[in-house]
Structure prediction request, 207 residues.
Amino acid sequence: MSGAPNNITSALRLYTRLSPATDKAEVGIKFYDGLFNGMKFKDMVAQGISFEYSFFKATVVNGSDAAAPAIKMAVYSPSTRNFTTFVWEPYVGGAPSGNPAKDVWLTKVVTNTTGTNATSGTGGSGWWRTGWFPTSSLGSSGTRQNYVRNLATWANYFNTSMPLDMSDAVVISVSIGVGSGNIGVTSYVNSLRIAVGDYDWKWSFVV
Prediction:
């Protein structure tokens, strides 16, 4: 969006109102054959997938202090038709965690080991998830957002608890956004980069 702050001429604007709390702002990229030409999710994690993006969070009176542009990654198994979505939010992400600074551009680098690697217990840092709900040490559907881990730990968890799904699971979409329930957010994103092995893809937002 033209007029982005700090002399950035163009950037993606993500905005939610103070009311109602149902607002959300999100854009994504779909990969019908899977990200990186159908590379399996477990192989991406094993080879050290990384994400890098830059965002700006403006001060909004009475707005959410914690909310900022987050990464969402949908993982799907063609054979079982099961899926999960991993969500990385800066305030619990572990790069480092905590409410993001306002009115400055921040660059976050998230690798396969960014965050907590504990195999049990609530809390932690890294990615939380939706979908794929086996009851286990890392939570069932009712408690999934209480369990936050790095991607390597999640991949190991699903390799053990749902090996059939993980045998062919691929990333079918990646998005950046501010989810519902996060009021009064004005933010900008100017780039997203995803890399693993010989793949290194970057998107610059000029809208």
User: Anything to note?
Assistant: The first strand starts at residue 12 and ends at 16. The helical segments are 35-38, 41-46, 90-93, 151-161, 163-168.
